[in-house]
Amino acid sequence: MRAMAVSLAPGTGLENATCGMLESTLRYLDLTKPSQSGEFDLFLWVRSLLTQASTDALYGVESNPFQDPTVQSGLWTVKKNLSSLMLNILPKILCSEGHHARLAVFAGFRKYYRERGHESASRMIKTRYEVLQQYNLSVEDIAHFDLNVCLGLLINTVPATYWALYYVYSQPSLLEEVREAISPYVQITADGPRRSVNIAEVVVKCPLVTSIVRETLRVQSVSSSARKVLKDTFVDGQYLLKQGSTVLIPTAEVHGPSSVSGTSSSTFDIRRYSSNKASETKKPDSPFRAFGGGSFLCPGRFFAENEMKVILVIMILKYDLETVEHKSWPWPQTRSSLASAIQAPRSDIRVKMLKRKGYESGFWDFEWRGKGTHLDFPTR
């Protein structure tokens, strides 16, 4: 865990992984041809995009096991059946679908390591492999452990990115406000015209992007933090927490009260985590628990936020999203999962992706140059 946290902490490893994810995202978007007739389910599209882009960034484009559709679909089948698989009671019989999907993922990673695919991978994967080798773990065991790495990489980032896009595109006034805030950082030349954007610069100079990401995580987080009671403690003078007991602290209860998240805490406010002092709902200094805390603080939190920011900036500047079956964006019912800290939609939304109105011609160049900004989270 420590090797993973160090590799994805602010620095060269994180920047290289973010650049790799950006490059893969642009390749994927080039394959999604915006047109008057092109339609897709938004959540499934985000899932497919992030699965490919995130794993390309960490495992390397050349040998990424997720280039194999069987491995990619296998991961999400495992996630769907995770509760049954965790019981580990005759999984081959009682959870046949999840069992065979898990075997497919194991086989993909076994092939990846045996063919030395990790030698062209990110710093995180290389460092992790070296640490596991020091403890004499076999390739078989390492391949099995990578299933957990990929679940941790994707099962929360995918729904979080979906919700961020939903909040921005379902409110036209909000979308225009964010576009206006980002537009000063678009460099335009007459060739085409050609529009160039350094997303790292946008993240540093336009706090609204980070605020959207944080507010999405605040509103949709359903995780819990666990703490061991070190001594008998009375809470509010009436609740006794016995020494040795475990206390579960729901994140939603921490993020919800106005005393913690500021006024209008029950609503989605894009300025809550912005440095804009004019915001009436800007949160006070307080814990942000979407990534956990203490020794359980998510080691990939900086990379996860960067991924969301990359997709948001590209989509907001370059594309329009319209619902196909409704005049306005319907509010999706949500469903929680044993493995996920972010709620996923119960049903998908059919959308059409078009080139942004007024920007149909010309070229876009996106890059991540510089360290961006990375605000750590309270660890208490």
Number of helices: 16
Roughly how many Å is the radius of gyration? Answer: 22 Å
Report the mean per-residue pLDDT as an integer. Answer: 87
What's the number of extended β-strand segments? 12
Largest sheet, in brief, is:
3 strands, antiparallel
In terms of structural class, how would the helical and strand content be classed?
alpha+beta
Global geometry: globular
Give the uncertain stretches in residue-range form: 277-282, 373-380
Task: Describe what this molecule looks like in 3D.
This protein has 380 residues and is of the alpha+beta class. It is built from 16 helices and 12 strands. The protein has helices at residues 2-7, 12-31, 42-59, 69-80, 82-87, 91-94, 96-114, 123-134, 139-154, 157-169, 172-182, 199-205, 207-220, 251-255, 258-261, 301-318, and strands at 39-41, 186-189, 194-198, 224-228, 233-235, 239-241, 246-250, 319-323, 334-335, 344-345, 350-355, 363-367. The chain has a 3-stranded antiparallel sheet. Mean pLDDT is 87; it is low at 277-282 and 373-380.
How would you summarize the topology of this molecule?
Layout: H1 2-7, H2 12-31, E1 39-41, H3 42-59, H4 69-80, H5 82-87, H6 91-94, H7 96-114, H8 123-134, H9 139-154, H10 157-169, H11 172-182, E2 186-189, E3 194-198, H12 199-205, H13 207-220, E4 224-228, E5 233-235, E6 239-241, E7 246-250, H14 251-255, H15 258-261, H16 301-318, E8 319-323, E9 334-335, E10 344-345, E11 350-355, E12 363-367
Parallel strand pairs: 3-12
Antiparallel strand pairs: 1-11, 2-3, 4-7, 5-6, 8-11, 9-10
Helix pairs in contact: 2-3, 2-16, 3-10, 4-7, 7-9, 10-13, 10-16, 12-13, 13-16
